[in-house]
Amino acid sequence: MLSKRSPGRMPAAALLPAALLAALLLSSTAARADRCDDIALHLKSQIDGVVIGRTIANAIYLSHPAAKQVRLGCASRNVSNELSATAEGRKPSAAFLQFVAGAAAVIFTIPKADTLRGASRCLGRLGLLRGDDIKTRYRRLDMHCSRTKTAATITIARGRDE
């Protein structure tokens, strides 16, 4: 008896596992495409005035009217994520602190009140008694504040092991 199937075609039942495997592989790479880009898009949707700039060397540069420069560092061997922001003057404005607190709250999934308190504590310690370079920890976040004659910078990061 002759088979009605043509010799060059596979049955549909054999194609189903191959199609499922291909869809699984493509969806897993698309979901993990770049978590840092997802965080940047989330920042843009949550905070008014944030504009996403270039991605250079594992960092996404952002802009905001309250900050001179903003950089979102992506995950590396030492840190899970990092936010670095520079203010115009030696003493940052309240709008700058609100922006940094809101961005850190979105990135590290911590309440905004906690990030605002940590950032204001770090920037408030800069001065004559403690110097112009402060490192502190608050709510499992590493905060590094520094200032020059023209600008103040805060960097907020979380260690890889936390």
Secondary structure tally, helices: 4
The ordered H/E elements are: HHEEEEHHEEE
> pLDDT below 50 for ≥5 consecutive residues: which ranges?
26-33
What's the count of strands? 7
Overall structural class, as computed from helix and strand content, comes to alpha+beta
* N/C terminus separation: 68 Å
What is the CA-atom radius of gyration, in angstroms?
A: 24 Å
Helix content: 25-40%
What's the rounded overall pLDDT mean? 80
Name the shape in a single word.
Answer: elongated
Total discrete domains: 1
Keywords: Signal
Signal peptide: 1-33
Walkthrough of the structure:
The protein has 162 residues and is an alpha+beta fold. The chain has one domain. 37% of the residues lie in helices and 28% in strands. It contains 4 helices and 7 strands. The protein has helices at residues 12-31, 35-46, 94-108, 112-124; strands at residues 51-56, 59-63, 69-73, 79-87, 133-138, 141-147, 152-159. The protein has a 7-stranded antiparallel beta sheet, covered by helices on one side. A hairpin with a 2-residue loop joins strand 5 and strand 6. Helix 3 (94-108) packs across helix 4. Residues 26-33 have low confidence and may be disordered. Keywords: Signal. Residues 1-33 form the signal peptide.
